[in-house]
Design a protein that fits this description.
The chain has two domains: 128 residues, N-terminal domain of MutM-like DNA repair proteins; 128 residues, Helicase, Ruva Protein, domain 3 (Orthogonal Bundle), CATH 1.10.8.50. The chain has six helices and ten strands, in the order αβαβββββββααααββ. It is 25% helix and 23% strand. With 282 residues, it is of the alpha+beta class. The model has no long low-confidence stretch (mean pLDDT 90). It has a four-stranded antiparallel beta sheet with strand order 1-6-7-5. A four-stranded antiparallel beta sheet has the order 2-3-4-8, covered by helices on one side. The chain has a two-stranded antiparallel sheet with strand order 9-10. The protein is globular. α1 crosses α6 and α3 packs across α6. The protein binds a DNA duplex (16 and 16 nucleotides) through loops.
DNA sequence: CGTATCTCCTGCAAGC
DNA sequence: TGCTTGCAGGAGATAC
């Protein structure tokens, strides 16, 4: 499931393949993703050049330039949802089931979006990207903007004072901090010794600093490993990530805690699974 | 406004 | 073996 490290891995993979390249054709086989892919987007994309391959939270932001003199810019917003992959392939590679979109480039390669569960998004906007409704309310970006652990911890501490929700829920709230999905929330809480059900306003500033350090190190390490592959994720070259080999609690119910040997528990919070060590996390 | 619940979708696995 | 059922989950929409 693409979370921040998987999206960043994808971003880094496609960047060299498409920067400066012209879109020669766009093929869409399935238009019903999370939102219907707008009619006519193929024609709007054709002829455009990739200017920048960016990211905000779990959104890939592909900046396009259509006509330099007229200053005609647009941004392609891509979200990988639950099962999305975005890969660089040679033109002529046969499309399989769930290969919904091909973007053909001038250098005889193509970018292919595959998304079996179709929770992803593929949208085009011309408004300033920070004002787009999907992005305008996003919270602190923990890795991309190079925030220090002190800044992230202080931010979480401040935000948590007026809230009643659990710390797990706070971490999963993209308006507070972006890119921390279920896997990395569970892992970060384990590393910092905080119980996922703990009320977020009952955690000290000092503990928030520890948590922030855990979040940053977990995300950074995972990006270095190419992300986490549980079942579906593949990077832009079709290769899996390797971070799952060092997941400490996620998906490990009934196994022994690597720190203390206690049995890892699995509980449900906000309709989501949480894993934690009952002895290490309070 | 903050929080909980529902929803989209497909593939896999467990259970009968 | 083959069916049904449950579950996985990012995040917007909706209800309270």
């Amino acid at each position: 499931m693409p979370e921040l490290p998987e999206v960043e891995t994808t971003r880094r993979g496609i960047e060299p393949a498409c920067l400066g390249q012209t879109i020669t054709e766009v093929i869409i086989r399935q238009r019903s993703l999370r939102w219907p892919i707008p009619r006519g987007i193929e024609q709007k994309l054709k002829g455009a050049v990739f200017n920048k391959v960016g990211r905000r939270a779990k959104y890939l932001l592909l900046e396009l330039e259509r006509n330099i003199a007229r200053n005609n810019y647009a941004t392609l917003i891509i979200h990988l949802g639950m099962t999305g992959t975005f890969r660089v392939l040679k033109q002529g590679t046969t499309a399989k089931k769930h290969d919904h979109i091909d973007i053909l480039l001038g250098n005889n390669t193509l970018l292919r979006l595959r998304d079996p569960r179709r929770f992803g998004a593929f949208l085009l906007t011309t408004e300033p990207i920070e004002k787009h409704h999907l992005l305008s309310n996003l919270g602190m970006e923990p890795v991309l903007h190079d925030y220090t652990a002190e800044e992230v911890g202080k931010h979480l501490y401040t935000q948590s004072r007026k809230r009643k929700t659990s710390i797990k829920s706070l971490l999963m709230d993209q308006k507070i901090i972006t890119g921390v999905g279920n896997i990395y929330a569970c892992e970060s809480l384990f590393l910092s010794g905080i119980h996922p059900k703990r009320g977020c306003n009952r955690i000290s500033e000092r503990h928030y600093l520890t948590l922030a350090e855990a979040i940053i190190s977990t995300l950074t390490t995972s990006i270095k490993q190419g992300g986490t592959t549980l079942q579906d994720f593949r990077n832009s070259e079709g290769k899996p990530g390797y971070f799952q080999q060092q997941l400490l609690v996620y998906g490990r119910d009934d196994e022994s805690c690597t720190k203390c040997g206690a049995i890892i528990y699995k509980i449900t919070q906000n309709q989501r699974s949480s894993w934690y060590c009952p002895r290490c996390q309070h």
